[in-house]
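Subject: Interface between my chains keeps coming out wrong

I've been trying for a while to get a sensible model of this assembly. When I model each chain on its own everything looks fine, but I need the whole thing in one frame so I can look at the contacts. Pasting all components below, labels as-is. Any help appreciated, I'm running out of ideas.
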Amino acid sequence: MMRAGPVGERGLDWIRGGEEAEIVLSSRVRVARNLQGFCFPGRSSDEERADVLERVRAAASRSTKLADGHFWDVADLDSVDRDLLVERHQISRDLVNSAGGSQSAFVMSESDSCGIMVNEEDHLRLQALVGGLELYSAWRQVDQLDEEVGSLLPLAYHHQFGFLTACPTNVGTGLRASVLIHIPGLVLTKEITKVLEGISQVGLNYRGLYGEGSEVVGNFFQVSNQTTLGKGEEDLIDHLGRVAGKVIDYERSARARLLSEAPAVLEDKVWRAYGILRTARSLALEEMMNLLSGVRLGVSLKLLKSPRVETLNEILVRGQSAHLEREAGGSLSEQEADVCRAAFVRDKLATDEQDAGSEPADGFNDAKADDGPPSGG
Amino acid sequence: MLCDDCNEKQAEIHLTSIESEEMTSAHLCVSCAAARGLSAESPSGAEQVPPLVDFLAQLGSAGQPAPAPAPSEPCPFCGTTTSDFRKTGRLGCSQCYVHFESQLRGLLRRIHGSSQHAGKLYLSDASDISDRLGQISAMRRRLKRAIETEDFESAADLRDRIHELETQE
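Reply #2:
Try treating it as a single job with all components included. I did that and got this:
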C-alpha cells in the first residue's frame, strides 16, 4: 500500500557510507524514461501531466519494489519537506520548480534506496542513491526497477535512438551515473586542474555538490558520464568506476606527499578546522562545508580519532537549512540558522568524542594501527 | 555551418529549391547570397514575421525562390518546431525523434559520438498497438481542447488523423 505522510527520516540511508567512504560520499545512478503517447512534461498540459501521474501511481502500487513505499505528490509536501528531500539529494530543484511542483511526484521504495521522480524534465527518472563507491549496487537497483516499470507502463523507445528523452543529451540509455568525491589533497597540491582536464578528456563531466550548475564547495566534486548513446549501461558505469578509482589513487598520493612534505601545515589545517567546528557559536553553511572538508581529511589520515565518517556525512546533510528548521520546529532567519548550525555541529562532535572514549587525541604517531571507527560506549 | 560558396563566413541563408523534380539545398552567407542575386534581408528579421504573414508573402511571390529558410513542418504530434527546439534545447514528445530524425542524427553524433543505441533493448509486449492507442487517446484529448477553443482547423486535422490511426487496426 503506497503511503504519503511526512518525509521524516527517509532518504538518509546513504549517509552510513560504503566502499571508500572517506573519499567517496555517494554513488548515484538514474535513468530517464518517458511514456508512449504523451508529450514530454515540458510540453504537456496540466491534464496530461495529471494523467501520467495517475498511470505511474497505478503502476507503482503494482510494483514489488515500490508497492510498500511512499508516493509523495510534490504539491502536497510542505516547503520544508521538499527542501529536506533536496538536501538529502533525493529530488532535484527542477522537480519542485517545474510548474510549482504541480502534477509532479516522488516515489520512494521502503526496502531499498531507489525511487522515481515523476514529471520532472522527463516523465520518469528512476534512480538509486547509495553511500560510498558502489555504482553497481545502485545500478542493479535501478535496472530491476526499470525492468518492472517497463513491463507495467509502455515506454517511449526507438530502435535506433533507444529510450527517448526530452533532452537529446540523455537519449539512448537515459543513464547518468555519478560519484560524489572528496579530493582536498588534489586541491591543496593544485593538481586538481590537471585531474579535471583529464576527466573532461575521457568523456566525463564534473560539477559541484548539487549537480548541474552548482558550485564546488568543501572540495566535493560530482563526476558523471557525459554521453548516454552508443555505449551500453555497464560500459558507461565501468568507465566511470575506473576513472573514479584513478582519481582516488591520485588523491591518496597527493595526501601522502602533503603528509611527508608539509606535515605541520597539514596538521595545523586539520586541527584548526576541528577546533572551529567544535567551538564556534555561529556557522554559515559554506564555512561549515569547508571546515568539514578539513576534518574529513584529518579523519581519513587518522590525524583525528573522532568524529566518524558517518557523523561527518550526517552533519553535511543535517547542518543544512531545512534540516535545522525541521529540528527547530519553525522557520529560521539566516542568523538564527547559523547559530543553530553551530550548536548542532558542536553537539555532534562532542558525542563522537565521548564515544571515542577520550579527547580526540593527536593520533599522528599512534593511531595508524587503529582501524575502523571507535566503538560506541 | 560555413557558407557553401566562400567557405569562410557562417551560412545564414538556407535555400531549398526544386527544379525538374530534383531538390537541391544551399547554405550561404549574406554576401554570397546577395552575389547570387538573392535577397539579403536579415533572416533573423524574417523569423519574427508571424507565420500567417510569411505564408501570405509566399503566395504573393509564387514562382520566385523563397528568400527565408524553408521552415520544416512542426512535429505532427506535439507541434514542436525547429525554432522551439533551438530555443529550449528540448524536444516535445517521442514523435519528434521520428519527425526530426534526419536533423537529429547529426546532432546526436556531435553530442554522443554515435547515433546508435547500444544499451538495453526494450520490447514492450504490444509496443506498436499500445503506442497507437496511446497516440489516439492523446489526440482525442487534443481534439477536445481544439473544439473548446474553437480551433476548428486543428480539430478537423486531428479528426482525420485519429480516423487514419483507428482504421489501421
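Reply #3:
Confirming on my end. The interface with chain B takes residues 34-40, 42-43, 45, 47-48, 121, 143, 146, 150-151, 154-164, 166-169, 171-173, 175, 227-233, 235 of chain A (CB under 8 Å).
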